[in-house]
Amino acid sequence: MSLVVVEPGTSLGEVVSIHVAPARRIPTRSVPEVVAEAGAGLVGDRYHGSRHRHVTIQSALDLEAAGAALGSVVEPGATRRNLTVSGGPVPGRPGTRVRVGEVLLEVVRPAAPCRLLDDWIAPGAMKAMHARGGTVFRILEGGRLHVGDPVVVESP
Question: Residue 7 pLDDT more than 80?
Answer without folding.
Answer: yes
